[in-house]
Amino acid sequence: MSGAVVLALLPVVLLIALGLGLRRGGFLDGAFWPGAERLAYFVLLPSLFFHGLATAQLDAVPVADLALTLILATTTVAGLVVAARPLMRIDGPAFTSVFQGAVRFNNYVGVTLAAGLYGAKGIALAAICNAAIVPTVNILCVVVFARHGSARLTGAGIARQIATNPLVVSSLAGLAFRLLGLPLPPGLEPAFRTLGAASLPLGLLCIGAALEFGAVRAWTGPIATACAVKFLAMPLATVLSALALGLSGPALTVALVFQVLPTASSSYIMARQLGGDAPLMAGLIAVQTLLALVAIPLVLSAIAAVVPL
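Structure tokens predicted for Transporter (309 residues):
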């Protein structure tokens, strides 16, 4: 298991490092990266999820158990983080960044790893993970921002954030196509497949370009808290939820991969837009991205020694 994970991580590491080098070396203009991230998030990754689910063979995939495992684990950990808020001794905006670091995940890394481990089946499992976790995490994060961020959101604003999320919409649309047995038109199927294939390398390059380490020293405590929750509490909660629901095999492995991923680079944008602590969020993204390269194989290997994956 650890050898397969390391091999699947290798292209992730190389592409993230390349993105960091391209940005710092000035090979591409700084204005390129925000547009590239927007393209990947709103067009390419939704195409991957839609195509992956619309064409997936879901007969042998425990869709309900996988989704319930992820939702149960995520909401449990989120509740514990909120309950521990008084112990953190940080202001509201900083707490929103810690919360995002604890529960959000990087889609690009997760899909790349799932595809590297299980091929087309891995992409389908990853799409199901996204269909379950993305709306859950977005609801939780937006509610936390509404309570603790400096910008207040109304109920309508919260609903709009969730209903217009491109990853939620594309995953649910792909799942609906598959469950209804609707075929993709011959001309559109290869277009969605090609757009989806482009999402992973571009997304990983954008992750590398977005890494910022300047805020790390000033926020050691909150960053350590978010990392402990992400790399220890979240996978543990996922295993316990999976055991309770009987989830095992590749579905459990992919679920664990997604629950131990570093937080998404889009968390920084959300922190800026909704009144969070953007500098702390930038430091969290950088630290978790580096730690995940070690944490993912270690966590999966440790769990595999106890629970068959």
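The two ends are 9 Å apart (CA to CA).
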